[in-house]
Amino acid sequence: MKIESITIREIQMPLVHFFETSFGRTTGRRIILVTLRGQGITAWGECVAGEHPHYSEESVETAWYALTSELAPAVIGKKLESAAECVPLMAQIRGNRMAKAAIENASWAAEAVAKQVPLWKLLGGTRKEIACGVSIGIQDSPEQLEEKVATELAAGYQRIKLKCKPGWDLKIFERIRQRWPEITLSCDANSAYTLADIEHLKQFDRFNLLMIEQPLWHDDFYLHARLQKQIKTRICLDEAIRNARDAEAAIELGSCGIINIKVGRVGGFSEAIKVHDVCQKQNIPVWCGGMLESGIGRAHNVALSTLPNFSLPGDVSASKRYWKEDIIEPEVTVSKQGTIAISDAVGTGYHAREDLIEKLTVRKETIGTGAMSAS
Ligand code: OSB
Ligand code: MG
Questions:
Q1: N or C, which end of the chain is more exposed by having fewer CB within 10 Å?
Q2: Max CA-CA distance within the chain?
Q3: What distance in angstroms lies between residue 39's CA and the mean position of ligand 1's atoms?
Q4: In a mutational test of the pocket of ligand 1, which residue from 20, 21, 54, 235 has the highest number of ligand atoms less than 8 Å from its CB?
């Protein structure tokens, strides 16, 4: 397919409920969407960069620059046999993986339409339904958290992940475990601890957690290996795994027993599949992480989660947990058993609601052949 034009836009959407992690509270999202057009096909991609560079170095502003000034020009007018060919075209630009993923993932969605196959099959997926968990942010009070956990369990979610930080950890786990001794429970520190906290972190072992996600520095997997030797609970790496080479090194070092794959964090579907394959070979289970995506990114996460080694419930939850109205049709829904059914429809199986997206757009720029410029 020849990429004729790329539209990069920012939309703004308020979250149904604030989301708080160890690095701060989000009440609404600014999201960059990419629309790729060529040979009669329109396909969408989402950039998962946050409003601030708190999770990683990328942010909405850096991604806007990378997409409009560097990445879109690198692929525009190019004829691709497959979406994976985007990767070498953008390789000269270092980093900016979330921005790259927005373009590459849109190309995969376009390729699926061009080949008239479901995206999940094109990616190598095998599952007809995927298992879902939820990530529950830090709340204003333990009572509020308990209420949230009760709501999500009643909705059917198979795994509850609690965001934690010093001061919102042991007492919280104690309380949740007292009420629900048997549920599958995990926690995510988003790098809130250091090795000086090792005695404290050892106490996490009391709560039978499925994993503790990224307890130490965001860019580390060496010291995580030291920590893993001293705790029983499996460490799951999120932030620290940027590509398949990182995954291989982290596994060899013994830094983790589980890896969270976020397609944006690793730079797109091609690299996400490579990370998946490395982990599968080493018997390290993976699950699909979330970045408070709109339906566009969510649909891509659903497709990725069908690969065989996604054997743990992901942070791929129903649209309505995040948005009053999602920008795709149908919305992503989760069954009472905590699963998402995979559609056999061509492409992602979800359609972008273009009228709604236009209404939510605060800026856009089109690059490419015969394209009008920005508004
Ligand atoms: O660390 O997994 C994370 C959201 C934003 C940034 C980082 C993370 C998260 C989540 C939310 O945990 C997962 C979701 O989309 O529900
Ligand atoms: Mg995480």
A1: C
A2: 63
A3: 36
A4: 21
- Nearest-angstrom CA–CA distance, 78 and 23: 40
Where do the H-state alpha helices sit in the chain? 60-65, 72-75, 86-90, 97-115, 119-122, 142-155, 170-179, 198-202, 222-230, 244-253, 269-281, 295-304, 354-360
Domain topology for 121-351: TIM Barrel (3.20.20)
pLDDT digits (tens, 9 = 90+) for 2-34: 999 999 999 999 999 999 999 899 999 999 999
**Protein residue with least CA distance to atom 7, ligand 1:** 291
CA of 5 from ligand 1 middle (Å) equals: 31
Mean pLDDT of 129-140: 97
**Per CATH, domain 5-116+353-374 is 3.30.390.10:** yes
Whose alpha carbon is nearest atom 9 of ligand 1? 291
Q: Kindly report, residue by residue over 157-214, the tens digit of the pLDDT.
A: 999 999 999 999 999 999 999 999 999 999 999 999 999 999 999 999 999 999 999 9
Helix (H, G, I), strand (E, B) or coil at 103: helix
Strands 258-261 and 286-288: parallel
Neighbours of ion ligand 2 (CB under 5 A): 188, 213, 238
| Residue ranges of domains in the chain | 5-116+353-374, 121-351
On the question of pLDDT at 38 being above 60, the answer is: yes
Catalytic residue list? 163, 262
- Tens digit of each residue's pLDDT (9 = 90 or more) over 181-197: 999 999 999 999 999 99
